[in-house]
Specification:
The protein has about 425 residues and is of the alpha/beta class. Helices cover about 45% and strands about 15% of the residues. The protein has 16 helices and 14 strands. The strands form 4 sheets. It has an 8-stranded parallel barrel with strand order 1-2-3-4-9-10-11-14, surrounded by 4 helices. Strands 5-6 form a two-stranded antiparallel sheet. The protein has a two-stranded antiparallel sheet with strand order 7-8. Helix 1 packs across helix 3, helix 4 packs across helix 6 and helix 6 runs parallel beside helix 7. The chain is globular. The termini are close together. The relative contact order is 0.16.
Length: about 425
């Protein structure tokens, strides 16, 4: 069978996904952020294009790392106004094959609650749910969970391992086909097919059984995006889909090779985990139109907001702390290790301060061109073996994803690089084969 790429859409329950000025574009819709139809329509668009799935990034609170709340409220930004868990059933109701992913932190939520919520939606969607596992990075999130500050980086991942172990045990507390539904004999289900989990670790303890039986795919697909050494170790053990921010061929290749080595060392089979870098396409009917669109979108960027978002990423206010050394002194246990290291490398290479480069570096470099040019670039990366597909990051909603689905997906399909029909009904089967 010819190898096919995987495509997953990145979404937020707010005004913008990544581009700080994307919500200002005349074609971006804002009045429907709290309308279920917004989420139904994008789900139907992605399913019609045969995307593997879509997932929602999330923050457990409102960002205030940079100059308090003002920047993230006044300037739009990457806020998540709705809990994505409440949106997935809306999207599941109007689709039948599209995978649906949600971000949930292992640091702030207990294993039983996570396992039950995800199992419930996985059952209702007939096996199409994914869990983007995060350990979280900011004290503002910790405060919302009743904690004084974030635990140390390594401790967060140790707890995450136990949360996944506990959830896995809970998802196995029901055997397949447990229901009898025998009205004449008065037997609804077979108690021999329901078991206790009885999981106990250093951080997590849960008895079970889960009230929710197994879905058609058994348990949700596990996503992960950590790029630190400990994050990669965690991904090698658990992840079936890795969302990675690498945007150039050299770093993509290094990351891909490193993860393949780690997966083999963890005893995982080749192909049991798909690695998808983030791509932000900006399309035009001609190269010049695409460039003009990119320039116009650049004019809508809010540079100070970009700095605010970068501050959240590194765990320190970059209006006050200008260098990597200063940030390291004040960040404590906050911030994303991979992002901080990336910003520091860019700053060192350019000779600028961390604050001068972090804002622009936080949004990455878009892929600009006609549908054919963008398809050429995706094909080149995919066939050169640096990835298994892509997470498509939108600039405007719903236009970015709609354009990609209408123009780039058919081109990839014509080249035999992407499916024309779903092969199965569950996310795991469509993603991994």
């Amino acid at each position: 069978m010819t190898r096919k790429m995987n495509l997953v859409a990145y979404l937020k329950t707010g005004p913008t996904a990544l581009h700080s000025g994307g919500w200002r574009h005349p074609e971006s819709t804002l009045q429907d952020i709290f309308d279920p139809v917004r989420y139904e329509q994008i789900a139907q668009t992605l399913e019609a294009a045969k995307f593997d799935g879509a997932f929602f990034a999330d923050l457990f609170g409102m960002a205030d790392t940079y100059k308090g709340l003002e920047m993230f409220v006044r300037s739009g930004g990457q806020n998540s106004y709705l809990d994505p868990l409440t949106v997935l059933p809306i999207m599941a109701r109007v689709t039948s094959r599209l995978g649906l992913g949600v971000t949930i932190s292992t640091t702030f939520h207990n294993a039983f609650h996570i396992a039950r919520s995800l199992a419930s939606i996985d059952m209702l969607s007939k096996g199409r749910v994914a869990w983007n596992v995060v350990t979280s990075t900011s004290d503002l999130e910790a405060a919302n969970a009743g904690m004084d500050k974030m635990p140390p980086h390594g401790e967060r991942y140790d707890r995450a391992d136990e949360v996944l172990e506990a959830c896995s045990a809970l998802w196995k507390t029901w055997d397949p086909d447990p229901f009898v539904h025998d009205k004449a004999r008065g037997i609804f289900g077979d108690p021999e097919k329901v078991h206790y989990a009885n999981y106990e670790g250093e951080w997590i303890k849960t008895r079970g059984p889960l009230p929710t039986p197994q879905s058609p795919q058994g348990r949700p697909v596990i996503m992960q995006a950590g790029s630190s050494d400990r994050g990669r170790e965690f991904a090698a053990r658990w992840a079936e889909l890795i969302f990675t921010p690498q945007t150039d061929r050299e770093t993509m290749q290094a990351f891909y090779e490193d993860m393949q080595r780690r997966l083999a060392e963890a005893g995982r089979k080749p192909g049991s985990c798909k690695i998808l870098p983030a791509i932000t396409p900006i399309l035009g009917e001609t190269e010049s139109i695409a460039s003009e669109r990119a320039e116009y979108l650049e004019s809508l960027q809010h540079q100070e907001y970009d700095l605010a978002y970068a501050s959240l990423s590194v765990g320190a206010d970059l209006s006050k702390h200008q260098t990597a050394e200063e940030v390291a002194k004040v960040r404590g246990n906050q911030g994303t290790r991979g992002k901080a290291e990336h910003f520091a490398k860019v700053a060192e290479k350019s000779g600028a301060t961390l604050a001068q480069v972090a804002g622009k570096a936080s949004r990455g470099k878009p892929l600009i061109g006609t549908p054919v040019v963008v398809a050429d670039a995706l094909q080149d990366m995919f066939e050169s073996g640096v990835c298994d597909g892509f997470v498509i990051m939108p600039v405007t909603h719903p236009g970015s994803h709609e354009q990609f689905c209408r123009a780039v997906v058919p081109e990839l399909q014509r080249r035999g690089l992407f499916r024309t029909e779903y092969a199965a009904s569950t996310l795991r089967e469509n993603l991994l084969g």
